[in-house]
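hey m, so remember when u said the C-alpha coordinates were messed up on ur end? i reran from scratch. heres the input so u can diff it against urs
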Amino acid sequence: MKLRRPTRMAERETVVALIDVTFFLLIFFMLVGRLDATAPFAVKPPVGTTGTDLPAGGITLSMSDTGALALDGAPITREALARAVTDRITKNPKVLIRINADQATELRHVLSLITQFEDLGARDVALIVTPEAP
Protein backbone atom coordinates (compact mmCIF):
# COMPACT_ATOMS: atom_id res chain seq x y z
CA MET A 1 0.00 0.00 0.00
CA LYS A 2 1.35 3.30 -1.08
CA LEU A 3 0.49 6.32 1.03
CA ARG A 4 0.49 9.65 -0.60
CA ARG A 5 1.12 12.82 1.21
CA PRO A 6 -1.52 15.41 0.62
CA THR A 7 -0.43 18.14 -1.73
CA ARG A 8 0.31 21.35 0.03
CA MET A 9 -1.53 24.38 -1.16
CA ALA A 10 0.51 27.51 -1.58
CA GLU A 11 0.21 29.78 1.43
CA ARG A 12 -1.76 32.92 0.92
CA GLU A 13 0.13 36.14 1.09
CA THR A 14 -0.85 38.14 4.12
CA VAL A 15 -1.20 41.91 4.15
CA VAL A 16 -1.09 42.22 7.92
CA ALA A 17 2.56 43.25 7.83
CA LEU A 18 1.79 45.96 5.30
CA ILE A 19 -1.03 47.30 7.45
CA ASP A 20 1.33 47.52 10.42
CA VAL A 21 3.87 49.45 8.36
CA THR A 22 1.14 51.80 7.15
CA PHE A 23 0.03 52.56 10.70
CA PHE A 24 3.62 53.16 11.81
CA LEU A 25 4.11 55.61 8.95
CA LEU A 26 0.83 57.33 9.73
CA ILE A 27 1.77 57.79 13.39
CA PHE A 28 5.27 58.96 12.43
CA PHE A 29 3.98 61.67 10.10
CA MET A 30 1.36 62.76 12.62
CA LEU A 31 4.05 63.25 15.24
CA VAL A 32 6.56 64.91 12.94
CA GLY A 33 4.15 67.06 10.95
CA ARG A 34 3.25 70.57 11.96
CA LEU A 35 -0.28 70.75 13.31
CA ASP A 36 -0.63 74.53 13.22
CA ALA A 37 -1.80 76.44 10.17
CA THR A 38 1.01 78.08 8.27
CA ALA A 39 0.63 81.15 6.10
CA PRO A 40 1.19 80.93 2.34
CA PHE A 41 3.73 83.75 2.71
CA ALA A 42 6.69 84.41 5.00
CA VAL A 43 5.81 85.99 8.35
CA LYS A 44 8.47 87.05 10.83
CA PRO A 45 6.69 88.02 14.09
CA PRO A 46 8.04 90.90 16.16
CA VAL A 47 10.20 90.22 19.21
CA GLY A 48 8.33 90.44 22.53
CA THR A 49 9.86 91.12 25.92
CA THR A 50 6.87 89.77 27.86
CA GLY A 51 4.12 87.30 27.20
CA THR A 52 2.93 83.75 27.80
CA ASP A 53 2.50 80.65 25.68
CA LEU A 54 -0.69 80.54 23.66
CA PRO A 55 -3.27 77.84 24.23
CA ALA A 56 -3.96 75.47 21.35
CA GLY A 57 -6.90 75.84 19.04
CA GLY A 58 -8.76 78.85 17.79
CA ILE A 59 -8.41 80.95 14.66
CA THR A 60 -5.00 81.92 13.27
CA LEU A 61 -4.86 85.01 11.06
CA SER A 62 -1.55 85.68 9.33
CA MET A 63 -0.66 89.10 7.91
CA SER A 64 2.31 89.77 5.64
CA ASP A 65 4.30 92.98 5.51
CA THR A 66 2.44 93.84 2.28
CA GLY A 67 -0.98 93.45 3.92
CA ALA A 68 -1.86 90.03 2.47
CA LEU A 69 -4.07 87.97 4.79
CA ALA A 70 -4.39 84.23 5.39
CA LEU A 71 -6.93 82.56 7.66
CA ASP A 72 -5.76 79.21 9.06
CA GLY A 73 -3.21 78.92 6.24
CA ALA A 74 -5.52 79.81 3.32
CA PRO A 75 -5.33 83.20 1.57
CA ILE A 76 -8.39 85.37 2.22
CA THR A 77 -9.69 88.87 1.48
CA ARG A 78 -10.84 91.32 4.16
CA GLU A 79 -14.48 90.94 3.11
CA ALA A 80 -14.38 87.16 3.26
CA LEU A 81 -12.45 87.38 6.54
CA ALA A 82 -15.33 89.19 8.25
CA ARG A 83 -17.82 86.53 7.14
CA ALA A 84 -15.57 83.62 8.12
CA VAL A 85 -14.76 85.05 11.56
CA THR A 86 -18.44 85.88 12.20
CA ASP A 87 -19.37 82.26 11.39
CA ARG A 88 -16.70 80.91 13.76
CA ILE A 89 -17.66 83.32 16.57
CA THR A 90 -21.32 82.38 16.16
CA LYS A 91 -20.46 78.70 16.60
CA ASN A 92 -18.12 79.32 19.56
CA PRO A 93 -18.25 82.77 21.24
CA LYS A 94 -15.15 81.95 23.32
CA VAL A 95 -12.94 81.18 20.30
CA LEU A 96 -9.41 82.60 20.54
CA ILE A 97 -8.24 84.67 17.58
CA ARG A 98 -4.46 84.74 17.07
CA ILE A 99 -2.94 87.41 14.87
CA ASN A 100 0.43 86.48 13.40
CA ALA A 101 1.58 89.73 11.80
CA ASP A 102 4.97 90.32 10.23
CA GLN A 103 7.22 92.63 12.23
CA ALA A 104 7.31 95.09 9.32
CA THR A 105 3.51 95.44 9.32
CA GLU A 106 2.32 98.86 10.41
CA LEU A 107 0.54 98.82 13.76
CA ARG A 108 -2.48 100.67 12.36
CA HIS A 109 -3.29 97.66 10.15
CA VAL A 110 -3.15 95.25 13.10
CA LEU A 111 -5.20 97.54 15.35
CA SER A 112 -7.91 97.90 12.70
CA LEU A 113 -8.21 94.09 12.58
CA ILE A 114 -8.46 93.86 16.36
CA THR A 115 -11.20 96.52 16.35
CA GLN A 116 -13.03 94.67 13.58
CA PHE A 117 -12.88 91.39 15.53
CA GLU A 118 -14.16 93.07 18.70
CA ASP A 119 -17.05 94.58 16.72
CA LEU A 120 -17.88 91.08 15.43
CA GLY A 121 -18.11 89.82 19.03
CA ALA A 122 -14.68 88.29 19.63
CA ARG A 123 -13.72 88.05 23.29
CA ASP A 124 -10.07 87.05 23.05
CA VAL A 125 -7.58 88.35 20.50
CA ALA A 126 -3.88 87.52 20.93
CA LEU A 127 -0.85 88.81 19.06
CA ILE A 128 1.87 86.28 18.24
CA VAL A 129 5.40 87.46 18.98
CA THR A 130 8.85 85.83 18.98
CA PRO A 131 10.32 85.45 22.49
CA GLU A 132 13.24 87.69 23.29
CA ALA A 133 16.59 85.95 22.90
CA PRO A 134 18.31 85.26 26.25
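this time it looks ok to me. The chain has a mean pLDDT of 81. if urs says something different then somethings off w ur setup not the seq
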